[in-house]
């Protein structure tokens, strides 16, 4: 007797299998329309290779596998493709998916089939291709592509045990049971092909002890084969892949690993039959055995049903009373999920349609507080602590959930079944798993964005630094130029610069003149004066200058230099130049002033009489004219002078205020603003005085 | 057709909280019958009055906490707390003693901590300890058992009178065997047994039968899978082991035989009805073994070297403190993992 192991936990729900075991497998026939979802398996959905309106034969491939983890879809009977569109399917999400709709013609005409009569002669690659092309995906419930599972072990290492899972531990379901009972030979033939593919040391057919007739049939079929039927006590969920492997081998699949990691490959009984039919008869997977049971159907039983058949079609064959139905479950009562509509199709993984009445599977009662009874931990086949997981799920403590191995939960529902407080534990775990998965996805995404952001920041910083360096270089160059200019002072300057300086000087001098009455000469730098200067310059060029002229020219030059220096000073102050430059300029001005005084005295010391008219050249005449004009202006009456003075002052105030406003707006230096304010303050009393003068004059005239 | 959309599992096991609580109440019957036979109707009156107070306290607390009263009263948990406390108290306890104890258990020890499932301490034992510390005289005057010194136990009417009009009838009280043994320091165990008829066969007239009654009830609950064997067996085994270690051949300094310790006082009652309270005990089977064993050790130490004659309540409360700590270090190894999760998070 082979040693069998036990796994931790498990529960014993009422089996309810006898209802559907009374009849042999019936054929469900051909419904008028078949709905074939492109995704009946785990992996990428198949890609349609037919067009709407196209006629297809039974077994013809209508959608090809998209990638490695994918399987094709075949037409279950002959007919016409009427649509490729989204339809509701049996999926826990309840969302519609892409389906091919086939209108059957009832002729059931096969496409040409090529089977391998003796698979033992075929090589592995041929067999695998055959299985893959037949669209076979695990028929126990998960629907993993069979050829992938049978292919090369991705982690290396050999397979020593091939397990065929005939446990069917879920209550109500008998699809595998009747298959073993009626088609044990096909199972064994399929198992032989599987043996050929994985080359195990031993092949074990695991069956729970509640199926004596199936065990008997399998044992008969296994005679003379290198396989063993292993029987073990009934307990839910011994049909879980991991649990069955532990029962049969005593080994546990490592967390996060595959059975292949411990040298085991596990296949469902139905899958073995599908493999046999595909290899030997060349028939793709187009039908399966499905149990229809529950108290809402009058004649529960098992059907051989074409994939794509609407569930409602099968229910009607079973004497279904719609008014007694309260939910429709695909799969068993422990792990099955409710379907949104009875019209959804049978797919490769539909082992059972359960149509219970309300009394049979009452709606879940309200959950009561957890009393920490620990029955869930006793029931858990994964040796988890469901109670702790429940608390952590409620508190959304994802790290603790992971530390307590939430992801080792197989969602078998044993804990919820056992819970005396009716807490929907599995629902909490599913939600938490989904949240953690989403969180991880988000984290990966934000990690990616973070890397990108950091790279961008780095690039921007590099650019900014380069710009800054350029700016610094430019600034340095500018400063160097400014220093050069300052050093050059009034000395040699290029002509353009000189011209600019002159223009500036004129402006500044005009202002300064008004400011300081001590320097009337500069103040009067009006067009007349300019003319005088020009004339003088011209005369100076004419060599024979009188001493008088020389003195005058000297004075003018000095005045010009002073004006220039002052203009420069004003400009420097305005532009906020360095203090040393300003000081230097001020010193220069101070030096100039005594010289200017000297020159002025010289000029005044000269004889008042102009030279004889005869001697006067054109230049001299011009001077005289200009001087006359000046004198005329000097001879203005006091009222006019005062008024002119007032106007000038008003103009200056307005200008200064405008400047101040502009400086404030442009955010100039506080020192500049302060200086401007001070200037305005000084101007105001002057203005008032001028006003008073004008008023006095007026009143004098009026009086 | 509107189809229900619910997640698996669709089937649910037969056990419910209410059913588990009912089972506990039923399991009390043999022990309570023995107590009633040997000590009269006092225990039954205690239980009846305690249940009334318990239900009223529970309803009041639920109302104050704005919880659905009907739903929670139906879980029978208040009845279990009240019944267990009433059994633990001396028969013919005055009505106010039970009122204080039960209402404290339900309102303070249970609902102030968040109600069913959230209380860190066994509510019945909290109530018991509060009474023992506050009213030591009332809590230690035990009625004499039937047949000892030709005592006639009170009838039902007398029991009710004793409960609600304390002192109206002179009841015969007697030191319990645990007290006698503790105070003894001159006689050998054998001589002590002969001198005091209340010692009965093994552990005290009446007491031993009540203990056996509770043992029967506990075994029935084990059979009904209300809890696992781990905590009760560990507690009784460690208590017996301690008693054997200190038995001292039955001389004057003996602390009593293992059988005496197992069957006297509240040892069996505590093992099957108190420390098996799931809410306040350790969760895993290994944890429950440790939890139970340490309670057994504490019961022995407090009985023999402490100031109180019986010790189950104190031992349980002390170990309630330790339960989360035990849980922390006794997490099981998950399927497919090489090592357990002990001590991590």
Short description:
The complex is a heterodimer of chains A (703) and B (345). Chain A has 703 residues and is α/β, with parallel strands linked by helices. In chain A, 49% of the residues lie in helices and 11% in strands.
Description of the molecule:
The complex is a heterodimer of chains A (703) and B (345). Chain A has helices spanning 124-133, 146-150, 175-182, 184-198, 212-222, 241-249, 269-281, 311-317, 375-379, 386-395, 398-403, 414-418, 425-488, 495-515, 520-523, 527-541, 547-574, 579-605, 618-634, 638-665, 670-702, and strands at 26-27, 33-37, 47-48, 55-56, 61-64, 73-74, 79-88, 96-104, 161-166, 202-208, 228-232, 264-268, 287-293, 301-306, 329-330, 337-338, 352-354. Chain A has 703 residues and is α/β, with parallel strands linked by helices. In chain A, a hairpin with an 8-residue loop joins β5 and β6 (73-74). In chain A, α16 packs antiparallel against α19 and α17 (547-574) packs antiparallel against α18 (579-605). Chain A is rod-shaped and about 150 Å long. The relative contact order of chain A is 0.07. Chain B has 345 residues and is mostly helical. Helix content of chain B is 59%, strand content 0%. Chain B has 17 helices and no strands. Chain B has helices spanning 17-27, 29-39, 42-64, 69-73, 77-88, 95-111, 123-134, 136-140, 156-164, 177-183, 189-195, 207-223, 230-245, 258-263, 267-274, 285-305, 312-329. Chain B is globular. Chains A and B meet through β16, α9, α11, α12 and α13 of A and α1 of B.
């Amino acid at each position: 007797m082979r040693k069998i192991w036990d796994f931790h936990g498990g529960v014993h729900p009422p089996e309810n299998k006898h209802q559907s075991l009374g009849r042999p497998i019936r054929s469900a026939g051909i419904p008028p329309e078949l709905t074939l979802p492109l995704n009946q398996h785990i992996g990428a959905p198949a890609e349609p290779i037919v067009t709407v309106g196209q006629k297809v034969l039974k077994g013809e491939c209508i959608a090809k596998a998209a990638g490695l983890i994918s399987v094709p879809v075949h037409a279950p009977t002959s007919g016409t493709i009427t649509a490729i569109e989204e339809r509701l399917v049996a999926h826990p999400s309840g969302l519609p998916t892409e389906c091919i709709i086939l209108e059957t013609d009832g002729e059931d005409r096969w496409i040409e089939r090529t089977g391998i009569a003796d698979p033992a002669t075929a090589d592995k690659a041929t067999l695998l291709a055959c299985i893959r092309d037949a669209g076979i995906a695990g028929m126990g419930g998960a629907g993993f592509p069979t050829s992938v599972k049978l292919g090369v072990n991705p982690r290396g290492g050999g397979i020593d045990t091939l397990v065929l899972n005939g446990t069917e531990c879920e209550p109500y379901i008998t699809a595998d049971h009747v298959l073993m009972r009626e088609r044990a030979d096909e199972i064994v033939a399929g198992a032989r092909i599987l043996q050929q593919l994985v080359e195990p040391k031993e092949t074990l057919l695991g069956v729970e002890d509640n199926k004596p007739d199936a065990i008997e049939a399998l044992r008969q079929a296994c005679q003379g084969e290198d396989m063993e039927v292993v029987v073990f006590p009934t307990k839910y969920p011994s049909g879980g892949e991991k649990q069955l492997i532990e029962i049969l081998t005593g080994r546990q699949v490592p967390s996060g690993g595959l059975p292949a990691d411990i040298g085991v490959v596990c296949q469902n009984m139905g899958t073995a039959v599908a493999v046999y039919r595909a290899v030997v008869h060349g028939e793709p997977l187009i039908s399966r055995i499905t149990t229809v049971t529950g108290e809402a159907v009058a004649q529960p039983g098992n059907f051989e049903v074409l994939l794509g058949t609407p569930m409602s079609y099968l229910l009607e064959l079973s004497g279904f009373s719609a008014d007694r139905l309260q939910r429709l479950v695909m799969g068993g009562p422990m792990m099955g999920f409710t379907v949104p509509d009875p019209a959804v199709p049978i797919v490769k993984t539909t082992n059972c349609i359960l149509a219970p009445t309300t009394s049979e599977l009452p709606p879940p009662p309200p959950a009561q507080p957890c009393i920490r009874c620990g029955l869930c931990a006793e029931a858990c086949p994964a040796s988890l602590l469901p109670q702790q997981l429940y608390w952590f799920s409620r508190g959304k403590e994802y790290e603790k959930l992971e530390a307590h191995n939430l992801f080792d939960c197989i969602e078998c529902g044993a804990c919820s079944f056992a819970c005396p407080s009716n807490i929907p534990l599995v629902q909490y775990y599913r939600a938490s798993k989904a949240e953690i998965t989403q969180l991880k996805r988000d984290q990966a995404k934000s990690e990616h964005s973070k890397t990108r952001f950091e790279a961008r920041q780095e690039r921007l910083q590099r650019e900014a630094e380069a710009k800054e360096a350029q700016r610094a270089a430019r600034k340095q160059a500018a400063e160097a130029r400014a220093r050069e200019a300052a050093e050059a002072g009034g000395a040699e300057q290029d002509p353009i610069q000189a011209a600019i300086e002159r223009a500036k000087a004129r402006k500044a001098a005009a202002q300064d003149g008004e400011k300081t009455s001590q320097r009337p000469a500069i103040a009067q730098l009006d067009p007349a004066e300019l003319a005088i200067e020009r004339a003088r310059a011209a005369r100076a060029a004419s060599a024979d200058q009188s001493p008088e002229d020389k003195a005058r020219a000297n004075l003018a030059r000095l005045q010009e230099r002073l004006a220039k220096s002052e203009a420069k000073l004003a400009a420097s102050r305005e532009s906020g130049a360095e203090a040393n430059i300003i000081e230097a300029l001020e010193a220069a001005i101070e030096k100039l002033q005594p010289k200017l005084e000297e020159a002025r005295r010289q000029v005044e010391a000269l004889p008042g009489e102009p030279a004889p008219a005869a001697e006067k050249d054109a230049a001299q005449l011009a001077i005289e004219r200009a001087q006359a004009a000046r004198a005329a202006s000097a001879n203005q009456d006091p009222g006019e002078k005062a008024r002119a003075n007032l106007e000038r002052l008003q103009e200056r105030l307005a200008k200064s205020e405008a400047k101040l406003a502009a400086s404030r707006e442009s955010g100039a230096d506080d020192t500049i603003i302060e200086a401007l304010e001070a200037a305005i303050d000084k101007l105001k009393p002057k203005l008032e005085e001028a006003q008073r003068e004008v008023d006095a004059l007026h009143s004098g005239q009026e009086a | 057709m509107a189809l229900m959309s619910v997640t698996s599992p669709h089937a649910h096991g037969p056990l419910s909280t209410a059913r588990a609580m009912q089972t506990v109440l039923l399991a009390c019957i043999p022990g309570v019958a023995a107590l009633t036979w040997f000590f009269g109707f006092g225990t039954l009156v205690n239980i009846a009055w305690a249940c009334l107070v318990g239900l009223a306290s529970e309803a009041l607390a639920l109302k104050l906490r704005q919880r659905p009263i009907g739903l929670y009263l139906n879980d029978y948990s208040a009845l279990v707390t009240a019944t267990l406390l009433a059994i633990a108290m001396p028969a013919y306890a005055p009505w106010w003693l039970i009122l204080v104890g039960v209402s404290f258990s339900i309102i303070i020890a249970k609902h102030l901590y968040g109600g069913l499932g959230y209380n860190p301490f066994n509510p019945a034992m909290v109530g018991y300890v509060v009474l023992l510390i506050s009213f030591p005289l009332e809590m230690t005057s035990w009625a004499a058992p039937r047949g000892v010194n030709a005592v006639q136990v009170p009838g039902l009417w007398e029991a009710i009178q004793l409960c609600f009009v304390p002192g109206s009838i002179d009841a015969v009280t007697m030191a319990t065997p645990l007290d006698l043994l503790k105070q003894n320091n001159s006689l050998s165990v054998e001589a002590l047994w002969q001198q005091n008829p209340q010692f009965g066969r093994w552990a005290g007239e009446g007491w031993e039968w009540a203990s056996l009654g509770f043992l029967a009830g506990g075994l029935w609950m084990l059979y009904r899978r209300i809890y696992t064997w781990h905590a009760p067996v560990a507690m009784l085994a460690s208590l017996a082991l301690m008693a054997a270690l200190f038995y001292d051949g039955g001389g004057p300094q003996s602390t009593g035989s293992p059988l005496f310790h197992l069957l006297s006082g509240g040892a069996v009652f505590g093992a099957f009805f108190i420390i098996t309270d799931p809410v306040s005990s350790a969760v895993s089977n290994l944890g429950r073994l440790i939890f139970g064993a340490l309670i057994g050790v504490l019961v022995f130490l407090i009985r023999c070297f402490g100031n109180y004659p019986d010790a189950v309540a104190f031992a349980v409360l002390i170990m309630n403190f330790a339960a989360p700590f035990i849980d922390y270090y006794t997490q099981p190894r998950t399927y497919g993992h090489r090592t357990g999760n002990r001590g991590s998070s």
